[in-house]
Amino acid sequence: MNKLPANISRNNFFAFLWHASFLAFAVNFIDVDTIMPSMLVEAGGNGFHIGIMTTIMLGGSSLTQLVFARYLSNKEYKKGFLLFGINTRIFVLFVMGLMLWYSGLLPGGITIWLIFFLITIYSLSGAFSNVSYTDLLGKSINPESRKTFFSVKRVVAGIILLLSAALAKKVLAGNEFPINYAWMLFIASCMLLIASLGFWRIKEHLSARLEVKGTRHFLGLLRNELKSNGRLIYFLGFINTMGVSMSLMPFIMLYAKKVFETGSAETGTFLFFKVLGSVATGFLLVSLFRKFKYRQLLYTNLSLVVMLILILLLSEGRPPFFLLFLLGGIITASYSISMNGILLEMSGNENRALYTGITGAGNILPALSPMLGGWIIERTGFQPFFIIYLVLILSSLFFIYKINCKK
Fold it and tell me: For a pLDDT cut of 70, what percent of the chain falls above it?
């Protein structure tokens, strides 16, 4: 296939940046680390419910990417599938907002299960979209512009994140449950609709693709990739150890609400500090984008997660939650940038959808650990839970070393 023309790459760069910017506005209003667990607790949820929700939003959706990758690998053009997935998410958020608005008319307890049902559809459509998104991003922006894109995306989106975090705090404090959370979902749906306009502008460039002839052929391709690419094995080991850190923040939110009885206004403050950490990380990596390597970023990420857990374990009385969520924002941003970069480094245009599916389906521990974590918290308390997470995350040190990222 012909090389992607520079003008098309530049057009797509700004199309993806438009989406990322307004998506950043939307995700603050449905933040999986603060807003969603807080909403579930307000609706009567406990630690196990938080575990189920986190499994659905962070783990279960990743596991289904392999199924979607099997289907989407054969498709020459993926823009339509991407739009289908994001439009489904827009609709689900609006329906969830309506459900919360009228939740007072629903029988007791059913609100939580309706939240689970709608979050499941939202997460599955996100998994479907992500396979197409990763493939489109890889073939729509030239390789020399990718690291710049990931870093600039963080900075541009970060400015909007700070503004939306301040607005989210006002919306949360302006009304009581469930009206305040219903407004959060309505705003998220609207912002995601605006974000989707960026995808309409993408000029999809036809490139080499991996042809999958059936389920047996697909499984054979998986086996061959795992045998031929030793780094992929270590990468899967990494996401099954360090990856559990991405499910830690919802439980810290639960810890704050259950043990220290924090309110909706404080939830907005926690969100703001998390966003501040994410934005600061984006600015730093943009200034160093020609110098930093993904391997260094992985080691830094590990150190920060260990520091966060030690603060929780060693604090006497109420821990400094503002600092914990600031660290959480830094960790989430650096993990996202490094994971996307490593995936693009290991894969090519023809097998990127397959690799996205493999890494998504390889998230076994990150998918299951939230439910297990919720069970541990309900049975033994928060301290044993934090210790178990610390041990798992420390074991990722071996896999970071073996991945040996060059870029």
Answer: 80
